[in-house]
Write a structure and sequence with these properties.
275 residues, 11 helices, Rossmann fold, alpha/beta
């Protein structure tokens, strides 16, 4: 597979101004980044694609992680974007760093959310009860995110306890409206591509010194999927980097404390002016 086989991705475009490419994680979709795009599109143009094999970017057959990069480069060409900022959450942050390494002249800054150039997790083993409770909590959350009984009975005993620390109705609303649909639309091929890369012990730390643009690294202190230490390690290899580690939050911290996260992003953007 090469750049000649790049897929045209489904993309959600909002706002006008300097472009910010917003990249989702796994499982995810462009629409699951609304916590960022609805806010940033008030001053910027946000482009949030469904990556290959996710959301509405359907793809039949297997592919590799590098194919995401080909697709994203083709997307920048399609929208005639000469220079942009990238915001990437989890897998999206890994792709953001890859794009900054491949296209340094086109990437003016990185906002890296719950991600790492050498991702390390400390997720406990998953039981059948974890999966059952997660399914029930998600289903009931879709019906009524404010149902405290569901949060206490199923949510706090499900896999959500490793994804969030603050079991609030607003967090469950994001999970119900954005995480669940994205999970259902994520293809098996996309999952295989990701886990193949993880099994190959992905590590880009030695190459990060090549990235010259400023970066902002945001992490949740209790992240089980990509640990805060792993994100902090990445920040230490980036030349011009600011780090925020949020206590009492986990991998989905932008849905736990959106106001704080958006405030810190705004402050960083203001500091760096026209990136």
């Amino acid at each position: 597979m090469s750049s000649d086989n790049a897929q045209q991705l489904n993309v959600y475009v909002q706002g006008q101004g300097f472009p910010i490419l917003c990249l989702h994680g796994h499982p995810g979709s462009g629409s699951s980044l609304s916590v960022f795009t609805n806010h940033l599109s008030q001053r910027f143009q946000t482009l949030a694609p469904d990556l290959r094999g996710y959301g509405k970017s359907r793809f039949h057959g297997n592919f590799e992680m590098i194919d995401h990069i080909y697709d994203l480069e083709a997307l920048l060409d399609r929208f005639q974007i000469e220079k942009c900022l990238i915001l990437g959450w989890s897998l999206g942050g890994i792709l953001a760093m890859e794009l900054a390494l491949k296209l340094p002249q086109r990437i003016s800054g990185l906002i890296l959310v719950a991600t790492s150039a050498r991702p390390i997790g400390n997720h406990p083993p998953v039981t059948w009860q974890d999966n059952l409770y997660t399914g029930v909590a998600a289903l009931l959350g879709c019906i009524n995110p404010n149902w405290q009984w569901n949060i206490e009975t199923f949510g706090k005993r499900s896999l959500l306890r490793y994804l969030i620390q603050q079991h609030t109705p607003s967090t469950y609303r994001y999970i119900a409206t954005e995480a669940v649909p994205a999970y259902l639309q994520t293809s098996a091929a996309a999952t295989r591509a990701l886990y193949t890369a993880i099994q190959a012990r992905y590590n880009r730390l030695p190459d990060l010194q090549q990235i010259q643009c400023p970066s902002l690294v945001l992490t949740g202190a209790q992240d089980y999927h990509i640990t805060a230490d792993s994100s902090r390690e990445t920040s230490q290899y980036l030349k011009d980097c600011q780090l925020h580690c949020y206590p009492n939050t986990a991998h989905l911290f932008p849905w736990e404390i959106p106001d704080q996260v958006l405030h810190d992003i705004d402050q960083w953007l203001q500091k760096h002016g026209e990136l």
